[in-house]
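Technical annex, item 7. During the second reporting period the consortium partners agreed on a shared format for inverse folding records so that results from different sites could be compared directly. Each record opens with the tokenized structure and is followed by the designed sequence. A conforming record, contributed by the partner at site C, is shown below for reference.
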């Protein structure tokens, strides 16, 4: 368990703001193919070093490869355009609900502790866990740093992923991640698939490959995005906004809310709208 660096998150956030201004002013040139990636790495590495990134992380960055599979996945997220029923079927919602109810019972003390501390009931946490990694069984095998670096280089969402890349490099310098860390196609890692910046902000210093740490980080994320204990989390209810913060896709948000409600037994409804 790496606990010490969590107390430096506030300082890093302030640093990240300054870094953001710095690399905006002298940003390495983005591209739309593998052709310019090596030159971009050299330019970005110089900028990162000037912004305080350490040699361990710089060396890891220089060893990254252009992640063609990540680009292909980023261009082909067709499931988010499905109807809710189609999306639920494609993602195996009945299996998530069935397995989720079992896990809720077998981990009752953990979920009770998380609800007491963060106000988040088991349903949405289990729904996210099941949806993201099939309860930890499908965490991805893509090199995390290569994925994030490729997307920072790619012109489509360069600004967003540049922030993620700086966070990943910070985590490598701290020893939380390494250049060989593996995860999903966009750089998500752990049981509930946290991006590097969210690890810094909400990971609480835990190992997100560990179930308890990952679920705590997820509950912490939801609480930080306005989750209120006892309030409902279906569309139109107060806590649905926190689910929306987790993922931008409307069909995903609705699925998490519905699966969570089915796991929770449909009893957690809020009188406050």
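Designed sequence (site C submission):
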């Amino acid at each position: 368990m790496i606990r010490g660096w969590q107390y430096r998150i506030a300082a890093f956030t302030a640093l990240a703001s300054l870094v953001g201004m710095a690399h905006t002013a002298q940003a390495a040139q983005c591209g739309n193919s593998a052709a310019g990636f090596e030159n971009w790495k050299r330019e970005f590495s110089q900028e990162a070093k000037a912004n305080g990134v350490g040699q361990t992380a710089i060396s890891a960055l220089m060893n990254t490869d252009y992640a063609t599979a990540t680009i292909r996945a980023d261009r082909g997220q067709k499931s988010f355009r499905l109807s809710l029923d189609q999306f639920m079927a494609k993602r195996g919602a009945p299996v998530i609900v069935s397995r989720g109810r079992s896990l809720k019972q077998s981990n009752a003390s953990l979920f009770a502790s998380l609800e007491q501390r963060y106000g988040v009931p088991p349903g949405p946490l289990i729904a996210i866990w099941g949806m993201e990694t099939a309860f930890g069984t499908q965490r991805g095998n893509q090199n995390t740093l290569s994925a994030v670096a490729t997307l920072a280089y790619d012109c489509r969402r360069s600004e967003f992923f540049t922030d993620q890349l700086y966070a990943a490099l910070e985590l490598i310098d701290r020893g939380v991640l390494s250049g060989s860390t593996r995860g999903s196609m966009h750089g998500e890692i752990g049981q509930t698939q946290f991006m590097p910046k969210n690890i810094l902000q909400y990971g609480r210093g835990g190992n997100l490959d560990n179930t308890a740490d990952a679920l705590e980080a997820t509950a912490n994320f939801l609480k930080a995005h306005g989750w209120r204990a006892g309030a409902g989390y279906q569309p139109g209810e107060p806590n649905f906004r926190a689910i929306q913060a987790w993922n931008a896709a409307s069909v995903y948000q609705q699925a998490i809310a519905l699966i969570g409600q089915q796991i929770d037994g449909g009893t957690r409804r809020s009188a406050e709208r």
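Residues 1-25, 267-273 have pLDDT under 50 and may be disordered. The CA atoms of residues 4 and 100 lie 33 Å apart. All partners now use this format for quarterly exchanges.
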